[in-house]
Amino acid sequence: MKINITKSANSKISELDFDNLEFGRIFSDHMFEMSYQNGVWKQPEIKPYAPITFEPSMMALHYGQAIFEGMKAYFADDKTIHLFRPKDHHKRLNNSARRLCMPEIEESVFIEGLEELLKLDSAWVPRKHGHALYIRPLMFASEEYLAAKVSAEYQFYIITSPVAAYYSEGFNPVSLTTSENFVRAVKGGTGEAKAAGNYGGSFLPAKKAQEKGYTQVLWLDAVEHKYVEEVGTMNIFFLMDGKLITPQLQGTVLPGITRRSVITLAKEWGLEVEERQISIDEVFDAHKNGILKEVFGAGTAAVISPVGHINHQGESITLDRDKIGPFAKKMFDAITGIQYGKVEDKYGWTHPVKLP
Ligand code: COI
């Protein structure tokens, strides 16, 4: 399907200070838009980024049928922008759509939409290493109807925003706490989908954690409140006892694309990787026994984010450094090296977009 393109008459790029980027605050000139009605996706469009109108009865506002993705585009050279694993993001978007009873999107429409959007807004892709154009595809139920049922209409958008580091700590270690009273996801729920409601539900516990000085919540399983799951904005990895350990995917953890890339690279480097249940007690014991070497998170927005401190029920462990550990740094350099086209991409993860 050909995308209708309407170019913006007034670029806002002169308002942007590339040296002081805040995550997700400023949006580039264009957006991709597509509507679903009568059982089909209609003509896709790229048009100037602008407010959208809807009635207060729009179903997404009432019943939370809303999903999104988070991906990034990287400046490779004056003629090339790299998307990172866009087909994997497309697959995950469709997995989320199926879980929330929403219509799937064709891969070719998704990829072409991204390519055309990037060609139009290539000047918005930051050039500095570590900075990128964050891409936010999103879909929501747009039927205007108060019945609690599956919506018959949807809107799909792709918007983009130039970004620096996600956490204000930048590359410095973040500090996490488990939550005694709250859980993020249960098996059979929506935890493995990128559903908007998963995030909304995590804000109260995250706010309480932040009031106590922690950056984020380290989620434990909802049944035994014992096994580590994820951080909500990133997956979690423990380098201990000569192995890399990360919680397995069993329906409650977001299947991160950076997570998968970390696992692939660690195995390539000869490290044993275990995707398995890991209890918070095992992590604390490993620290006591001196075998917990590094803890770090991995996610699109966060990339690789070192964890310096974990609190669990008033007991704390501090990884004895105030900067990123050597393994996390090596992983950050390898992944960003591939993303920016500076390191050989053996796995075909980068999707180059050639600029006209
Ligand atoms: C991402 O890493 O892209 C996310 O979606 C996490 C967050 C900013 C909500």
Any idea of the CATH class of the largest domain?
Answer: Alpha Beta
Radius of gyration: 21 Å
CATH topology title of the largest domain? D-amino Acid Aminotransferase, Chain A, domain 1
**First-to-last CA distance:** 21 Å
SSE blueprint and pairings:
Layout: E1 4-5, E2 30-37, E3 40-41, E4 45-48, H1 59-63, E5 66-68, E6 71-77, E7 80-84, H2 86-99, H3 107-120, E8 132-141, E9 154-163, E10 174-177, H4 196-200, H5 203-211, E11 216-217, E12 235-240, E13 243-246, H6 257-268, E14 272-275, H7 280-288, E15 292-299, E16 303-312, E17 315-318, H8 326-339, E18 350-354
Parallel strand pairs: 1-4, 10-11, 10-16, 13-14
Antiparallel strand pairs: 2-3, 2-4, 2-9, 5-8, 6-7, 6-8, 7-18, 8-9, 12-13, 12-15, 15-16, 16-17
Residues 70, 199, 233, 299-301 line the site of 2-OXO-4-methylpentanoic acid.
TL;DR of this structure?
With 356 residues, the protein is α+β, with helices and mostly antiparallel strands.
Write up what this structure looks like:
- The chain has helices at residues 59-63, 86-99, 107-120, 196-200, 203-211, 257-268, 280-288, 326-339, and strands at residues 4-5, 30-37, 40-41, 45-48, 66-68, 71-77, 80-84, 132-141, 154-163, 174-177, 216-217, 235-240, 243-246, 272-275, 292-299, 303-312, 315-318, 350-354.
- By secondary structure, it is an alpha+beta fold.
- It has two domains: 4-164 and 350-354, D-amino Acid Aminotransferase, Chain A, domain 1, CATH 3.30.470; 174-324, D-amino Acid Aminotransferase, Chain A, domain 2.
- The strands form two sheets. Strands 1, 2, 3, 4, 5, 6, 7, 8, 9 and 18 form a ten-stranded mixed sheet that branches.
- The radius of gyration is 21 Å and the shape is globular.
